[in-house]
Amino acid sequence: MNDNPFQILVDEPVPATRLDAGRVLHAGRTRVRRRRAVTTVAAAVAVLVVVAGGTALAVSRDDRRPKPAPAMPGPSPSTGPVTCTGAEVTGADGASSIAMDPTGQWIAVGDQTGQTITLLKDGTAVRTVTQPSVIVATAVSAAGTVVGYQDLEQRQRPISWRDGHVTTLPLPTGAVSGQAGGVNVGGDIVGVVNLAGNQRRAVLWRFSDPLRPVLLDTPSGKASTAARISDDGRITGAIGGYEQPYLWSAADGHGRPLPVPDGMPGGVAVYITGEWVVGTIDFLARSRTLSDGTLVGTEKMAIARWNLRDGTVERIPGEYVSATGVTRDGRVVLFSMMAGVQLWDGTRVGPLPGTSRVQQPEGLSDDGSVLLIRTDRGLLRYTCKGG
Amino acid sequence: MHLSRVRHDADDEFTQFVGPRIPRLHRIAYQLLGDRDRADDAVQNALTTLYLRWKSRHDVHNLDAYVHTMVVRQCLTERRRWWSRVRLWDATPDVPVASGVPLVEQRMLLRQALRDLPDGQRTVLVLRFLCDLPVHDVAVLLGRSEGTVKSQTSNGLKALRRALGDDVTLANIPEGVA
After folding, report:
1. ipTM of model over 0.85
2. How far is it, in rounded angstroms, from Cα A372 to Cα A379?
3. Exposure winner among A66, B8, B13, B174, fewest CB in 10 A?
4. Contact residues on chain B for A376, CB-CB shorter than 8 A
């Protein structure tokens, strides 16, 4: 008799791999060539003392509110082709977490152990934190505040890391775990918390009152998820198990559903820049409800872009593993396993010049001038012109 | 012997080694990540690292176990990065489309129950029973004691049985293993 309790999963047929030995060999040879070409410069990093616990937030005042970075130049008036050149981000090989701020200046990188995060500014390490358990960076603000979560006593707890201090964000009453997923330049943080019974709820930690996290308005009996927050306080996310893309206001915690194209219900709004939002749609057709009420997916997601100015939504042609962000002028960077890094300019999708099929986008600046890409040998920070 | 010839011989040997193993490594990665593309990604990253270390392969006592561990480590790293890359579909791993076959439904329920476990218990159960790793290897991979791995196995299985009720029956594992 077989004594593996998961035998039904062991016996389960899995989708065929697209890898073959030739592709792996090619990737290996490419990595060897690039390694030879790269001169690594060791970066000096400062190890700072970590202060955990919500009390550190109690002294927060508005005069300590993070100051925004100097305004970045607006989108280039050029209509020529986009050209991108990449520079290696040192020490990011095998990164366990990666996040970039909307200006492209700040990058947070988790090391291979998952216990150390390094914050870089303009490619230079400025700060490092090491924790006894796994710590994950999910977002960085234009003021250099990192948010994410940390494993504590087998539960995930939301954290922020600013000015050298890691702070565990307080959970709302009834919540047992959570993750911070977005932060704006003013230091307002959004994420999700898990209430007893494993129900997810969207949550906001206002910079002005961080000890009192706010559960964002959610229709009765539903779950919710908050993904990102814009500098003017608009929060993206979804209701239920991605049943409805949603947009909240940080000012009052109220929200409203975002429209979806006819016949494509469900999805989640994620990235927000200016009047543009990007996320997934058609979720319900690509998922099904199990007998216990759980929603599970069956296919890749369709990606959509919302225009908040005129209230419209449009599906981006094709299917993708992920979208990485949206620029102030509405361009979207996408990732397709087969086609690699793609750029949608509002009318057509095409490969991003200078990138290759095996590279994956990890971050996009608001003005489209900086693109962060993970490759098989590490992390590249691309600066792009034109478009 | 000319250097380029040495390189070609090593490349041939590398290709012959990894070729037949890719499907099994992909299966392990898929069990851990729940998605074909991410599994391919993890296997490719691990094997690319192996390529870089290929000239030291003779120093490794059990190359198969070594590669196996590399892929598992890569998958654990991938899982920590879910928010930055995967959240657009984090609730939607590739799973078989329901076909009305009870076994398919049971697999879905078991996968969902696994996802609902605390991260530590879930990781230990997947590594032990889906990746077929012994307690010692799981303890080394996760940086925990063997006692902790065993207690997380036991607690994880209890929680799964509670969650699944009569919908799915999990086989008992031998005394002392958990």
Report:
1. no
2. 7
3. B174
4. 44-45, 48
